[in-house]
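Deviation from plan, reported transparently: uridine-5'-diphosphate-xylopyranose complex.
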Amino acid sequence: MNVCVIGGAGYVGLITGLGLAELGHRVVNVDIDAAHVERLNRGDSPIYEEGIGPLLRRHLDSGRIRFTQLLPAGLVDSEVVIIAVGSPAQDDGHADLSAISSVAEDLSKHWDEPDGRYRVIAIKSTVPVGTAELVRSIMGRQKREGEDFDIISNPEFLREGKGLHDFFYPDRIVIGSDSERARAVIKELYEPVIQRRVRFNGEEPPGSEPVPLVETSLASAQMIKYASNAFLATRISFINEVAWLCERTGADVKEVSYGMGFDSRIGHAYLDAGLGFGGPCLEKDLRALIKISEASGYDPQLLRSVLERNQRQVEEVVARVKEAAGDVLYQRVITVFGLAFKPQTNDLRNSQSLEVIQRLREQGATLRAHDPVALPEARALDPGAAYIDDPYEAVHGSDALLILTAWPQYAELDYGRIKERMASPCIIDARNLLDGSLLRALGFSYTGVGRGPSRASTEPRIG
Ligand code: UDX
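Because the crystal trials were delayed, the predicted structure below was used instead.
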């Protein structure tokens, strides 16, 4: 099929376009960002994502994908138009739909260039219930629904760092539309994925049964996306709350979540206590759902608590560093391991690490920072640390080492060597990544999150 992906240089648009090209479709990714379009056409991906470079170069060579700023060029021969532009949170938490409505305006203006055929508009951006209706009403001013176009909601559930994997091996595909014709087009688009005929990175698909298809209304499809992200956020805040209870009762949250997860009604995923959830999606979507609830006259108490618990994680970790420093952070040298909002990405958006750095700086600490991939982005953004490529160099002269992103390579470092370089052997592991007993045996003061008796009674202090 011929597909046009709008917002095609962004995270969701790029993964979707490349994924569809790999399925055999001919894809044009349209984006207003000239620099990214130019980079992508040279085979250089602006995002860091497992497997993306080779796939991009392969399909530029095969001619199955190209990038342009021109919407009419993307619409030529297209049967499906995918909208994957951003829906960022406004200051008050509401989703900002201006990009979506301007795409709808542009689409209705250029729809007939050159042939005015029937196309399905699939909305992939995470948007509040009602947004599809907005696109429909803008399109409807010029074009006839059912004859010229149909709209479906087809939310994505891609995790950064695993985006391509999640595209090829989804847990489910959600198609929200009243139009049978449109649903048939989208089923055809994803047919190789649904029937598990694709392989990514030589991996076997996680199952042999077809991928579950959830065919539903526009409203339910949009809500499935919000409710899924809000539920993941709730699990994380829940286990973070349990972590603080563990500290006060002598339990260890890692053992508790491990034990809980075997219950088939619970499972192990999204039960890692730590610094809470960051990144561009979970918090934004949770805030948007809170706003949607409030606008409908409902008080979303539980959702608000999930958000508050998350905000307190950063404060509690900062308080912990302060406590270890004897309440004075002025001129203390603190090294941070991990800047990206989670491992396997260079994304600093809404990263808890940057917030921790900022809070510690405000209190007079001197920050040194390392990340395996996000240092160029951190240097460009400069949240106020020295950015050092070598982790052993980064800890030089430090009074404390904070683990803020659970990059697995941090567990492989030589902590004997690290201790020699630090001014004071203190580690605060806000992601529960390291083996505390090994580090204590090496002479470190080690504190995790929710790992047994209150730190005040057991942990030595900085200096
Ligand atoms: C999320 C959703 O998972 C995905 O389905 C949706 O399409 C986009 O939003 P992503 O933002 O890539 O994906 O991040 P995710 O892997 O879900 O992690 C979010 C945050 O939660 C990270 O900061 C991570 O470190 C944190 N997290 C995750 C925890 O603190 N504990 C956990 O157990 C899991």
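The pocket of uridine-5'-diphosphate-xylopyranose is lined by residues 156-160, 229, 232, 236, 270-272, 274, 276-279, 281-282, 341-342 (CB under 6 Å). We consider this an acceptable substitute for the interim report.
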